[in-house]
Structures are given as structure tokens and as C-alpha cells.
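Lab notebook, page 48
Experiment: co-folding of the full assembly
Goal: obtain a model of how the components sit together before planning crosslinking
Operator: M.T.
Materials (sequences as entered):
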Amino acid sequence: MDSLVLDKKISDRGKEFFASISGEAPSIFNKGWWTGKVMDWSMKNENFKIQLFRFVDVLPYLNTSDSLTRHIDEYFAGDDQDVPKVLKMGAGVMGTGLGGKLAAGLVAKAIRSNIEGMAKQFIIGENTPDAMKNLKKIRKDGFAFTVDILGEASVSEIESEAYLKEYMELLDALKKEHASWAGLGGKDLDWGHAPKVNISVKPTALFSQASPKDFEGSVQGIEKRLAAILRKVKEMNGFMRIDMEQYKFKDITLEVYRRLRSSEEFRDYPHLGIVLQAYLKDTDQDLADLLAWARAEKLPISVRLVKGAYWDSETVIAKQNGWDIPVWTIKAESDAAYERQAKMILENHDICHFGCASHNIRTIAAVMETAKALNVPDERYEFQVLYGMAEPVRKGLLKVAKRVRLYAPYGDLLPGMAYLVRRLLENTANESFLRQSFAEEAEVERLMENPAVTVEREKAQRKPKAEAEVAGLARFENEPFADFTQESVRQAFMDAVAAVRAQLGKEYPLVIGGQEVRTADTLQSVNPANPSEIIGTICQASTKEIDLAIEAAKKAAPAWKALSPEERAGYLLKAAEIARKEIFTLSAWQTLEVGKQFDQAQADVAEAIDFMEYYAREMIRFGKPQRMGRAPGEMSQLIYQPKGIAAVIAPWNFPLAISCGMSSAAIVAGNPVLYKPAGPSSVIGFTLSEIFRKAGLPAGVFNYVPGRGSVMGDYLVEHPDVALIAFTGSMEVGHRIIGKASVVHPGQKQIKKVIAELGGKNAIIIDDDADLDEAIKEVLHSAFAFQGQKCSACSRVIVVEPIYAKFIERLVEGARSLAIGPAEDPTYFMGPVVDDKAQQNVLKYIDIAKSEGTVLYSSPVPAGGYYAPLTIVEGITPEHRIAQEEVFGPVLSVMKVKNFDQAMEWANSTRYSLTGAVFSRSPKHLEKAREQFNVGNLYLNRGSTGALVERHPFGGFNMSGVGSKAGGPDYLLQFMDPRLVCENTMRRGFAPIEEDDDWII
Amino acid sequence: MDSLVLDKKISDRGKEFFASISGEAPSIFNKGWWTGKVMDWSMKNENFKIQLFRFVDVLPYLNTSDSLTRHIDEYFAGDDQDVPKVLKMGAGVMGTGLGGKLAAGLVAKAIRSNIEGMAKQFIIGENTPDAMKNLKKIRKDGFAFTVDILGEASVSEIESEAYLKEYMELLDALKKEHASWAGLGGKDLDWGHAPKVNISVKPTALFSQASPKDFEGSVQGIEKRLAAILRKVKEMNGFMRIDMEQYKFKDITLEVYRRLRSSEEFRDYPHLGIVLQAYLKDTDQDLADLLAWARAEKLPISVRLVKGAYWDSETVIAKQNGWDIPVWTIKAESDAAYERQAKMILENHDICHFGCASHNIRTIAAVMETAKALNVPDERYEFQVLYGMAEPVRKGLLKVAKRVRLYAPYGDLLPGMAYLVRRLLENTANESFLRQSFAEEAEVERLMENPAVTVEREKAQRKPKAEAEVAGLARFENEPFADFTQESVRQAFMDAVAAVRAQLGKEYPLVIGGQEVRTADTLQSVNPANPSEIIGTICQASTKEIDLAIEAAKKAAPAWKALSPEERAGYLLKAAEIARKEIFTLSAWQTLEVGKQFDQAQADVAEAIDFMEYYAREMIRFGKPQRMGRAPGEMSQLIYQPKGIAAVIAPWNFPLAISCGMSSAAIVAGNPVLYKPAGPSSVIGFTLSEIFRKAGLPAGVFNYVPGRGSVMGDYLVEHPDVALIAFTGSMEVGHRIIGKASVVHPGQKQIKKVIAELGGKNAIIIDDDADLDEAIKEVLHSAFAFQGQKCSACSRVIVVEPIYAKFIERLVEGARSLAIGPAEDPTYFMGPVVDDKAQQNVLKYIDIAKSEGTVLYSSPVPAGGYYAPLTIVEGITPEHRIAQEEVFGPVLSVMKVKNFDQAMEWANSTRYSLTGAVFSRSPKHLEKAREQFNVGNLYLNRGSTGALVERHPFGGFNMSGVGSKAGGPDYLLQFMDPRLVCENTMRRGFAPIEEDDDWII
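Observation: model returned without errors.
Model output:
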């Protein structure tokens, strides 16, 4: 059919549909109801909307009247006076003269009940009896259903197992009921062809360890439990649809579907469906692939096509990670994609059953007309809408299309709230079709426009943003994280490990003044997961080589200083480009030499690249003379110059990033570097030297001088020609360096500068209203990722009493679910610690923990490598050593406190002030933390690790460092001396006047 | 006469005048001439104009062909290609094929000769025979004359004496000639009434030590020599006019005139005139006063009224010093003032003879018509124009007005160049009437407009500048320097000294936690000019009082930290206001306690005020959270918080400024302070405590704890509760503090921060093309002001060989001219050093100087006080102790170098890197200094002292400090720890989007 003709038909049918339902508003926008009023407010007041969503989100955690009242105050204080009135509707206390606490309590109660009431509108039931009753009711009204159990986040296998159990119980209940139901349309099956029992399952909740990094493990983990559900569904001849969730799980979910559908057990059972999201840019291809697969396998499939419900978070996450945005960014693009994909499915109706899930009348009309045009039999497509929403649409649909299925969530209100928030979002988003059609009565013509046309118009209206540029450079952007959703990325890591493995065991010289220098004394670096695997043998500098390197640096210094900031920055940018090209190889070295998991290793290399890109721009910024004052007759400019020779003494835990950060800052500021890597990461240190060599850095500007601290450490620090020392490491060594550097030695021309970033004893506070789904994942990650070997790692979790039991239970189960093994295998969350010394140290602290508290969990570990058990200990108070001393390993102390104030006090009870985090949904508590949680990097509602260059300038104070912020705007200042050059420009009473002079008007 | 009628007549006469001279251009704009071409270029090309003026200025110093060629290259390289062609005109080498050095030499020679030729046009002669010849010639042409001897800057009394001698010789020459001249108009006197011999004298050149600060001394110093000239003038019945120079000498000059005119010796001799400048806002009043005085004294006077020739520098200086601009800022305002004042003089023609000095035809016409309207007799007014300029005007004038006198400079070309620059400026300034009338042929109507009308129009066109504001505060402005031209200011200092003297001898307690604390141990502070005068007796803290103060600070800390930056800044602004009100008293304390001269003391208090005003604004700036990155879904902010308790250990040499700077920075950043003043300035330290008390600073935030370093110094530095130490003082003590502070003591929670500003061994380089008039004054000031007791003081002057002899001769004579005595008497340039220890130390170094070099001058000193001789020693090389060690007293080492490169090398040959200065007019050498002169504060063509807050952030590196810049934009960072607070704002997949998010388009 001619597409214009079809489009006309679609538009006509849509208008008819509109007319047929005109005057009927969906309950949520019925302003007579409390919900309607609140939704109305939300649309008018963006701030209220945000606060309301957040309040709804936290509501299930507010178990006491005090807590509820306090949160209402915090969320809605300062807002328009009418807002509380709206919220209080139905409280029955307005004008009654009830005052004070009692009234507040009543209001709070009313608000809770109003919101819970609103939530319940979208849920088929909180228990099976209720659910069965309601399901029967909707079937009576002529609708089919699909039930989905609420509960999205599993932080442990025990939770995934519990989720599975819920499905089994639901199916048991349905089993009892369904036989008594007549099929819609009177036959045994609904409409003569569809199973009456229909469930939808969110796959990732069934496997708590699902992660795109571990594709195969995730597929298997999910498939195992899904198969159990499907087995039971099959027993009652039901239908199971695998829901589609976040983009990162999309390929895993598709793979699970293909495997289950084509498995021996189920390949003859057709009632297994999948969901595709039209808003994903991938979907055209995914759909085509899936149809081709079905044809090839000769397996009929069923696809529910939705628009997609995670648009905000997909976009935010992509932006935060530096990835391409996976979703269409214009709403009409998704609509157009939907119509395109619906057509493709309908064209393949012989092999693919279609579930059209949309509330958009244009979309529905398009599907109807397209199906008609393609002569698609009725039993090959049906319509689906959300339970509790868009009532007029569903009624209208039922009239016209007959086959309408309601998507009916079931289960506890707590996870229900998360669902409610997403639904509310959908309803009030500016672009929402529903809002437009019912709330704003936008013109029908416009609503019926072909979305492809809308897209073109909107594209034409969008103007490219003008981006600030620094000296012709694009604005700094963080290097993207590895996107493990891509198979090629996962493979690249494996390949790189293999390639690096082939290069193990070499001898590495020092590099001084561009020359390789070999020494008799050498050190072996080994794979901590398998100490018999030698990574490399590294020559070790003695004081003699330090002298050589100082001479090389002195020789290189004048020419290097004389280059312009732009020229020096150019070398860094070139080095960044080299590292970018070699990112997988550089990561693989870390996996093998220090036991970094792929994501951790890649993040480290990315951070190294970030440091170079950022400091290059920063140096260009500082390189511009800054005019001081505006006095006519003088030109006074503040400029910066290098301090002199820099000693960079680096740790092994961020073996490339921190080494590169300190070195590149020194270098770009004009200071030649003597770089001493940590022993266990000396080969990675050599790769840094190689990067700079390949970037063409002049000889002597960067000197690679690994060596034993006991042999050359003090000598380097005390050397009269060393002007600055950049050190990252332990507090003890830091103190030693600061002390040694403070003594002026004969021949020394300058006061030495020490930039020291030391340890931490970082706490995460769990408030009683914390979102535990997020908090537990983040605590586990902060405490145990890379074996807790980060100065930023969480080593204390401080939990307020009301939430303590629940948190601990979930935390320990979460920890128990983490697999431990070699970093090169993505199955494992945690690997070995760096060496035997580290292993012994951790074991020592585990003994201390045992003596000071109660060990809740101490994991088994593989044999062979330098593994240390993941350990959680409770009953810890600030007096304990385990609460005060940095362990630098996977040991987490749990501290129970009465309330948030005590949490803050305990958090601040150590000598360290590095990182910290708070999980709370109390605006006041977050504000208090902002003011009082005395750490260099404070994170609110996220973990304590993972600082990014520029976004999270990193570093602490007190005994955690000198108040330096790596990757921040003040960092380079530490590597330079400021100079003021003031020229008197007046000669013989005459001065040229500058534009920015403070001259007469 | 009706003013409109008069205005019409003026305009008509002006137009007639124009018509009469039409077609005649003044020689300088005659484009056929080389000068005309160059002037034409200057008008079209602002950059060329600046370079040309600067080149003309330096030309007399370019004594070798190489030097000349090099400067031509440096000044005119990179300019339009036509420029060199213009400059080379007349060189006769264009197109001759002569290349290389020879050609360059010829070009240089041609340029020099062209410029010298241009200069000579404005000079009546370089020697008396030439002058006499030319004077005769102009008289023959019908013009009278007044001769003025070029040479404006005297840096020593011997130079002033020489200038006097030149006048005497000129008068001798005139004496021989004038008898043979017939009076103009045929009678014995010119025009029947005017002396034939007429000279103009610039008064300040006659007394090298003239300074508004010492009004009476300046008047007497000038009067003495002027009287000698007048005596000789009187002998030959000549006329002497006292010229008017810069504004700062105006009142001195007027006073000299009145004294001479009314003196016993000359009150009956009427031929003594004065000059008034119409561009000064004071002139209406000055003229009225002068006329009233003449009437009261019954002494006929003569006034030459000029527009004024120092407009640029008067404006720049006022702006630089924070004073009201003394001149009219619209050109027409000066013109209008001129007409107004001319009228007033003409109205008083019975008592006042009028010299109308202007080239402006409107002005001339106005004077003519006004004189006519007032029936002023011819002999009561005459016209004056500059020799060598405005030839058509002078010819026209002669025709119409008959009585025209040419102002004829006489003397060496070297000072002549300065004169030439001023004349060139006048001719090419945009507003120049001459340029308009001859060079641009602007409409006559407009040129004849009544300037009062022009003023109104231009005022209406000027729009007020929008000034950047910080949190409602006006942009930072430096506190104005004391304006000693004002009698009230001079008196205020004297009164304040008397008032402070009445308060001497009190006992001063410590102030801890807002309470006075007295101790048994006390210290006496004395007047260094008179040690028997006790300034005060100061209680001395022991470790016990330090503990007390630490407790008070700890108690005050939380509340102080909790205040907003704006609130803390508010206290500083209040304190600044208090100091501003008490500025004379605070200065007087310094004069008596540490021997600071009034200007030095006032500058110190002003700097203290500046620190408070600046740091207040800086803290508000730093107080604003700085968003990091732009990631949607998170709000990441960099903020700063106080480090903790600060120990401020201050020096006595800038007793209020540095104490206040370090303390106010600490305080405004949120750190409570323990302030230990230096012993010799403890009472001044107490005044700081009083300022803060009066400003209402909460108790314990600022604790005044004077004490003996030997008793409590280390204790304070090592105290585990002290988080930061701000120290300004000697290198030795600095090293000790840095060492002690680096050791971590039990109970210590933080790594101590030391902000140290230490010593200097500052050099000023004198290049062979330096403007010695300026260089010598600045070197003397930098080396000996406040007795050289500044870390920024010049203690080495490095002179390149070609200029060495000339420089040294002038320098030593300049030094010899400086008077030494108590600071409270403004007669004295230099006073006593601070105490007997300082005196002994200086004497020790003078002995060392004597043993290492040749003492060129060592001044006598008064008896009684702690005086140390002002000493200049030559023959010093970098090996000498006197070239390496900081003396902190009035001892200047002179180092002779071969060339500029060696000067730079020697300048950089000490461990210190604090201040330095270069006097050079070579753009390349200035650039080299900018790059290589390794000091924290480098000054080009000005002295090495006198850094101002904001305009000149102050501080050095190497052994001069830690690279901290007091009064600069990075300073406060040192007093704070940075914190990053990053909130994950995404909840349930929904994040509020901020305006500056990196969101989709």
C-alpha cells in the first residue's frame, strides 16, 4: 500500500479513536482525586515534582511517625504554601485547630495513605488472594493479563532465590485458579488462541551477579532460574514473557531467550516471548536478527514491543560513562522506530506473534491499520496496556481491537514504589503522549502526526551547542569506561591478556636520559594469582643511578622549561593518544601484574589518559599570564614556572593512573621527573616510560628509576637538587618523606615541596532511610573491588540502628555471593591481594578483627595465589584498632550507631580524612554530611571509590595528605612557583592605555 | 557684555584668524618633511606611535652604532613594512643594494640624524653661542622670548647645584648680549614695557630632595637657589617666571613664588611671574587665592596661564595611587577653564599681568575679545607660544596681537628628548587642537565652539562603566596612599605622632579568648631614634599561655568555621573600616616604635587595610562551591574549609601589614589565630588585636600572644593542635620552623602546613640604555627607604659597563643628598634601624663590605639612636659574602658586569629568589628578564619594593619562601583544605537536569 494512503488511514483511525473516548480522562489525571491534584502540581512545578518523586521513593522506609513527619518537612519545606495543602488533602485536619505534633502526625499519616493509595492503583495485589480477586475482575471486564512480580534489585543469590520462589508461589496460586476461568471469548483459550495464564519476568533479579563484564556467567545464572519458572508455566500451558530491562542487560537477555527458546526442553513449547524496546537505537538490528534466527531455527517467537521505560537513566549513565547514548534522544524518533518495527513484526507474523504495548493512540492506530493492510490474522497480534493507567484507552481498545492484555504488577508495596516512580515519571514527562492527550488537550491533528515528520521538524530546531574550547582543544571529557555490553570489548580484554602473557618474563632496564641502564641488582615481579608466573625482572637503581638521573634531569631542564605550556601540553596529549590506542594491553598488564579485574584495570588506564588530557589543558590555562589589578601605566602579570626536578614516588594500587598523574603534572608544568614505581608494579611503571618515549618526550624529562626504598628512597628525597616530591602511599612513609624533605642540605637551593597523598580509613554511613538496593551494591563495591586495595576503599560501614539488622543481613548475603578467583577471569568479582606481604598484613588484621569484634563472614579463598579472605566484622567501635588503622585489603568493619549524629561523630573519629559516603534520603542529613563529614572526597548516595579526573578532584587532608586534589583545578599550582612581573609602562609621563585598564570613563 | 554676544565675537574672530592663516601648516605636519611623514604615521598607527615615542626617549643613550641598530630592530620589528621605509627616509640607502651590517649602520645613522633634527627644531640651541644667535634671529622676526634650560630631573644636590650654575651661565651670556638688543617696537623695553631678558625656571630641578611630604624643607630648598637666579635677573632688569610642573609640586611652587615675591629683597621688583595650569581642577581656587593675596599684599604679579602638559601622567599617577584625578578628564573642560580663568585674570589686570600661553585659536580669540571687552591695556597681556611649533599661529598672532613671546628651551639634547616626547604627544593626541586644525582640517565651526558647550555634549555621551561586583561589594581597590600635597594630611601625621606620644609607656597584656592575660615576664619596646623613650612594656607568653590560647582557639573554632564566608568576610571589612579611620594614629605608632617614615608607615597601614579588603573578597569567591564536570545525574562541587588553628609569626618590618595579612587570611578562611608579633613591634601588634576587637571578632578567633621565640617559639610550632604556621621572617628561622613542623607529634591529627616568606638578596639591573633619572631615584628608594629593612629591598645593583661610571657618580651623589634623622621629622629620608642588634648586624656587614670591596660612600649618622650608616660599596662579585647574605639594612653592593647576560647571571647567583628589577629600554632585554630573572616579584623600569595587594602579589621561592603570594589569588588556598562533595542525584533512574549539565541538545 502506498505509504501516504496508509498514513491517512492511520490518522483517520486515530482521530476516530480519540472521538470515541473523548471526555474520559485516565484516573491519574482526574483532578477530583487527590492523585490528580498532585499530578497537576507536579506538572506546574518542576521542583515539587522532583521532591515528590523522591519522597515517594523513600516513603516505604519511613516506618515511624517521627521519621515520616521529619521527611515531609525536609522534602516540602520552603515550597509554595499551597503544596502542603494539596498533600494534606484527605487528612481531615485542616481547620480543625489541631496543632503541634499530633496534627503533624495526622497529616503525615494522611499523606502516606494518599500516596500508598495512589501506588495501589497500579498494583494488582500485595498478596495472592488480592491478586487472584483482581485478576478475576479484569478478566470479567474482558481483559487478559500478564502478571509481573515487583522487585527489581537482587544484591545476593539468596535474594534471587527468593524472587524465584515468589514466582513459583504465584504460579501455584494461578494453577489453583486458572482452570476455573473461562477463556475470553468463551473458548478454552483466551480469544481462542492465547493461554489464560500469562506472566512476565524480569530476568536480572533472578541472578544477583549478572554483569555484562561476565556475559556467559550472567546468561547461565539467569537461564538456570528462568528455566525453572518456564517449566512450571509449561506445566499449566501458560505463557512466559522475558521482560527487557536496562540496556546493559539487553544482549544477555536476548541470549537467554534464544537459549531457552531453542533448548531441548522448550523448543517445542511456543509460549515463550521476549520484549524489545523501540527507544533503543539497536532495536532495528536486534529485531531483524531475532526474526532471522527464528526463521533459521524454525522456531516461532513472540515479541512485545514497548517504547522503553528507562530513558532518563540510560541517557544519564551513557553521559556519565562517556558512551554513545543508546536511546533515541527525540521522543518522536522512538515513536517512528516503533511504527517501523511493528511493521517488520507484522510482516513476519507467520513466525512472530506481536504484543503491541503502547498507550499512544497514533501508535495503536498505526498498528491496527498496518495489520489490516498486511492482512495479519487476529490471533497473531494483541494489545497491551499497563494496569491502572490509561483507562479510556484500554476501554476504547477493547471495543475496537478486542484483544487487550493488562500488564499487572504484583507484590510488596516497597518495590512497588520504585515502579510507581517510573510510572509517575512517564505520566508527567513533558513529552508524554498521555499527558498531552488528556491533561492538556493538545490538538488531535498534531498528536496524530506521523512521528517521522515530527522527527524531521524537531531535528531542524535543535542547534548544536557551542562548546568551550581551550586553545583549540575540545573541552576535557573523561575517557569512556569500557562498555562490556560489546562483545568486541569483552574479547579484546581476553586477547590482550593472552598477548601480554606471551611477553612475560623479560628483564627491564632503568631509563635515564633516554638511555637504558642495567644494574646487577634486580627484582622479580610476579602474578599475585599465580606467583610462579614471573611478570618481569626489573633492574634496581642504587644511589649511583639516582645521581645519573639527576644529572640527566638537570641537563634536560632548561630546554624543557623554555618550551611553551602549549608545547609541553602537546606531549601529554600525544602520550594520551598512545595510551588510548593501547588501552587493552595496558589493562592486561595490570590484570597480570597486580591482579586488577578488567573493569578496574581499564578504569586505571582511562584515568591515566584523563590525567594527561586534563593537566595538558590545565597547563595551558595556567600558562596564560594573568593580569593583576588594572592600574594604567603598568602591566602586572602573574605567571607560573616549574619548581625544578621532581621525584615521583608512586604506589602499586593504581599503577598507571597515579604514576601517570603525578608524573604528567610535574612534566607539563616543566619539571623533569625521576619516577620510582612501586616494586610490585614495576613493569607497569615501565609501560608508562614507554608511553612517554613513544610520545617523543625529550630525553631526561622522564627518567624511569625503579629501586628499593631502603637503598635509594631517602637519598632521592634528600637530594639537594630535588625540588619537589610527589608521593602517594602510606601515612608512615609520607611522614618520613615530609620529615626528610624539610631538612635543608648543603648545596640545596630551594625549599622542597612535598605533595603527599596518604591513607584513609573511609566510612560509609547507612542512614535509616537509605535505599538499600543501591547502598549494599555500592558498599560491596567500595569495600571489596580490587580486594579493597584502594586508599579510597570503604573499610568502615556505619549503620544506624533502625536499619541495622536488615542492612547487615543483605550485606552479608551479598558478600557471600561474590566469587573470588584470578582477575583475568571475569567470573570473579574479587582476586588476590598484591603480594605475600599484603596477604600477611590482611591476615594479621583479620586476627585483630576477630579479637575485637564478631566476624560475620570470612570468605573461602582459592589456593595458590596471594588470596586473602573477604571479611566482614561487626561489633566495632572507634576504640578498636580495626576501626582506626588502614588495612588496605578486603576487611570491612561494621559499626552500629544509635542515630545519624553518632554516625557522623564516629565517621570523623580517625586521623584520616580521605573519602566517605552517606546513603540517606533525608535532605537534612545529607546537608549535615556536606558540612560535617570531614573528608576530602565525600559522596552522597554513591560509593566511596571511583573518583574521576575533573569531576571528582581526589585527595584528603589531616593524616590523609596535604590537602592536594589530584585531577582538580588547584593541582598544578603545587608543581610551580608563581612569579609576578610588573612593568612600569609609563615613560616620560606617557603610558599606552590597555583595554582593561581602570582608566577614566 | 552679554555672554552670547561675546561668544559670537570670539567665534567670528577665530574664523577670521583661521582664514588669515589658511594654507599654512606648521612645520611638524608638513608632510613633505621627514617629521611630517613620521607624525602622519603616528596618527594612523597607535602601536607605531608608542614605539616611536619610546625610541625617541631612549635615543640619547644609544651611543654606539650596534646599540642604535639593535634598538631600531627591537622597537620597529614586526611592524608594517612601510614603517622602516618612513624611518629610513633620507638615509640614501634605499635601493642602493648596500646590505648587511653596513647598510643597517647607515640606516641607523640616518634615523638618529632625522630624529635629532626633529628635536633640534624645538630647541633654541645646545650651547650659548647657538642660543644667542637664534634668540637674536627671533627678535629680528619680531618675537620676544623666554628661555628655559632643559633638564628636569635632579637626583642629587650636586645636580641641582649644576642646574643652578647653568642658569647663571646663561644669564651671563645674556648679560653680554642684551644691551645690544633694541627693544621690540623700538623702545628700550620690548613693546615699551617688557624686559628683553626673560627666563623660565623649573623649580624642582633646583632642589633634588623636593617632596610634598617635606613641604617646608622643599620650599626652602627651592627658594634658596631660585633667589640666586632672581638676584642675577634683577641685576640686568630681566624677567623671571617660575614654571609649574607636576601637580604634587604645585602648592610648593606657589608658596615659593609668594615667598620670593613678597621677600624683603624682591618685593619691589615686579618682574617675577608664576604659571597656572588650566587643566587642574584646583586652578580656579588657586587663581582666586593668588589674586586676593596680591591685592592684600599690594604686590603686582604676573601669571602665565597654560593648559598643562602632564595630563597623561597626572591621570595615571592618581589612578595608581587611588587619588582623585586632579586634572579635568574632558579636554574641553580644560579649554573652558582656561577661558574662565583668563577672564578672571583680565578682570584683575590692574594687579596681574597676563601671559596667554596657548596654540588654540578659539582660546586666543577668546582672550583677545575678552581683553577688548574689558578694555585691558595692551601692556597688561601678551601671547606666548612654543618655539618650533604652530608657526602659522605665531605668525598670525604677531600680525594681530603684536605681543608674542616664544618659549624657547635651551640646552643638551639628552634632556631635550624628554621635552620632545612631550611635544610630540601634544601634537598627536587625538584631542589636540593643533592636529585637528592642521592635520585633519576639521570643521572650523566645530573648532570655534564654546568649550563649555562641548563639555556638556561630551559628558552626556559618557556612560558610567559597569563595575564587576563580588557579593554586593565593589571591586577591590587599593587603599589610597597618603596625599602629602594636602596640608591637612601633613598636619594629621604630626598630630598623630603627638597624640601617640602622649600614650607611650603603658603595659600591654596578652589577649587570649577575648581576655587580657598578664605575665610576670615583660619586654620593653623603645623608640629606635631615641632608645630612652619607652613605647610600651609587653607581657610575654610562656608555654602555659600558649596552651591557654590553643584552648581558646579550639573553643572558638567550630562556631567560627560554621559562619558563612560572607559573614567571616564581614568582620574583615569592618576591621578594615576601623583601620581606615585610625590610619594616622596607626602610622604614628610605627613611626615611633620602629622608625618608619610617614609615607612608609601609611603605606604599611594601607596595605593592612588592603589585605583585609582583598582577602574578604577572595574568601567570598572561594566560598562559592565550584561545580566540577557537568555530568548529568550528579552534582559534584569543590569547596574549601579551614585547616584548623593557625600560628601567625610575624616580623617587625611591616609590623601591621604582614601581621594583618597573615592573620586576616587565616581568620577569613575560618582558622582561629595565635598571633606572635615580633618583639620590636609588639605594641603595633597590640593595635592589630585592638582593631579586631573593635570589629567584634568573636573571642578566641584572634589571640594576641607576644613572647620570646626562645621560650615559646618551638612549642607553638610543634604543638599538635596547630594546623598551620604562617611565618614571615629570616631564612634561618624559616628553615627551623619547616623542620620542626614536619615532625608528627603524638595527638597530632593533621600534617602541618607552613606558609613561609623568607629573605631576599635582591638585585636591580641597570642596563646601558636605562633612564638614569628614574633608575637612580628608584634604586635609592629601593635600597634605603626604611633603612633598607625590607625583604624586598635592593641590596645589589648590577650595572653594565658602558653606563657604569655615569650611574655610579649620580647614584653616590644622590645618596649623599639623603638626610638621615628621626622618622617623625619629614626632613629625613632615612632613619634609625630597628634596634641595637640590627645596628650591630649592619655595622658588621659594613666591615665585611669594606674588606670585600671599595666603599664609595658611608654616611654620617646622628648620635643617640640606633643609626647605621647608609653605605654603598663597589667592586663586589658573586663570590663575596656581601653579595650573598641578607643584610637587612642600608647597605648596597654595586656589581659591575660586562653586559646584560652577565647581569642576569649574577642577579640569579644567590639562593634567594624574592624581588628584582631591571632598568632598561631594550624590549629584548626586558623580555629576557621576564623569562630568566628568577625572582618572585620582578619589576621592569621601577624599583624592587612597594608591592601592592592584588596588583603585585608578593612572595618568592627557592630560599625566599615556599612560593606563596601574599595578596594574590592563590594565597587563601594555603589556609584551607579542599573538599569534594559529589551527590548522586539519580534516584530510581530519574535525575533532575541542571542548566549546566552536559545533557543532550
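Interpretation: Confidence is low (pLDDT under 50) at residues 92-98 of chain B.
Next step: discuss with group before ordering constructs.
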